[in-house]
Amino acid sequence: MPFETGSVSFRMYHLPRALPESVLDGFLERVAPPLDTIKDQPVYGWVTGRHLLDRQIDDNNSYLAGYLRLCLLQAERKIPSSLLKAEMKQEELIRMAVNGSSHISRKEKVEMKQEIVDRLLHTMPPTLKGMTFVHRPDDAFLFAETLAEKQVDVFVSYLREALGFPAQVVTPESWAMHSQHSDPNNWVPCSFSEEVEAERTSPMPGHDFMTWLWYQSETHPDKVPAGKEGHVGVMIEGPLTLVMEGGGAHEISLRKGNPTQSSEAKACLLAGKKLRKATVNIVRGEQVWRLTLDGETLAVRGFKPIVPEENLDFISRFQDRMLQVELVSQLLRGLYDSFVEERKDPDAWGKRVKEIQSWAKARSVAY
Q1: Using CB atoms within 10 A as the burial measure, which of 44, 73, 342, 363 is most buried?
Q2: Among 176, 188, 202, residue whose Cα is nearest residue 298
Q3: Greatest Cα-to-Cα distance within the chain, rounded to the nearest angstrom
Q4: What tens-digit pLDDT sequence spans the chain (367 residues)?
């Protein structure tokens, strides 16, 4: 499972209240159905975080190192398209030979396809996908491997049914409202280029945040404000994704070499583009964490927990990894809180925008 080994990709969810003591009952009532009942439509249900076939949701199997660990399973049977095409062609050739005809009518093809599906579908092994989440019962946050918006919608719906109350996925918009009581819809648009009107640039708060973070990482790399977490070190690396609606290229990705110091990066900033996604290194003391942060959603991809020097058993290693996930998530929210604190103040933000414009214009370029 993804939270146990390797890199971790996740979205943060805020829980408005603590989980009830009988929390497992809600998941058990919505346990994944047996595989032999799966047909052609996607079926969802809960399993434990041990593996995708573990339907035994109880205290022993659903908790690891004190963390609730469950998985929303999606299962369906599919006939591979190549197999279906081959079966269709084979049946067409047989029918044309038997009927002495040179073609098959559209109606007959539809009927033929349905016959083949009915014959083969039940022999296909179910396709399984899972969305695992981990939550420490005394924490207000839950972490789930749900990156795509479609996954988020499905996950939130099934989680609400199991918990009895909704969980709020953390986005730039939702977290600004929750932590700072500031509605990004009321923020005045801004441009980080002196040459481009604010109304032509992206109004998304996540794009402003990522560009602000980039600026902070190059002007105060060792003392970037992170809200209640104090200050941390931040370094931005490529690949970089910069965006701007309107004419020309809406999205540009800069890879390889040194994208942050490239002439292309400077040209993008002066053209009014804002940073959407980048590799972010967060430094606290002697610890350095590397991840890819998507400013539009605050989704974290490819986060690699630091491997401890000493050999830990499986449970201790999992606990250590989750503590790092929680800490890095706190730091990211702290960085965003500091940004919102400035962004919601028109005077403070106006000064900051001018500073970022000067920074963009005066950027040195590595050739």
Answers
A1: 73
A2: 176
A3: 83
A4: 679 999 999 999 999 999 999 999 999 999 999 998 988 889 999 999 999 999 999 999 999 999 999 999 999 999 999 999 999 999 999 998 988 888 888 999 999 999 999 899 989 999 999 999 999 999 999 999 999 999 999 999 999 999 999 999 999 999 999 999 999 999 999 999 999 999 999 999 999 999 999 999 999 999 999 999 999 999 999 999 999 875 545 889 998 888 998 999 999 999 999 999 999 999 999 999 999 999 999 999 999 999 988 888 999 999 999 999 999 999 999 999 999 999 999 999 999 999 999 999 998 766 5
Residues whose CB falls within 8 Å of the CB of residue 251, separated by 6 or more in sequence, listed in order? 241, 242, 243, 276
**Which among 218, 192, 214 is positioned nearest to 203, based on CA atoms?**
192
Give me 342's structure tokens: 């400035």
Cα(169)–Cα(178) distance, integer angstroms = 11
Q: Residue 188 CB: number of other CB atoms within 10 A?
A: 11
Q: How many Cα atoms within 13 Å fall on the side-chain side of residue 246?
A: 14
The total number of residues written for the chain in this structure: 367
Output the six-digit token pair for 252. 């540009």
CA 364 – CA 359 distance, rounded (Å): 10
The DSSP line for 112-172 is HHHHHHHHHGGGSPPEEEEEEEEE-TTSSEEEE---SHHHHHHHHHHHHHHHSSPPEEP-H
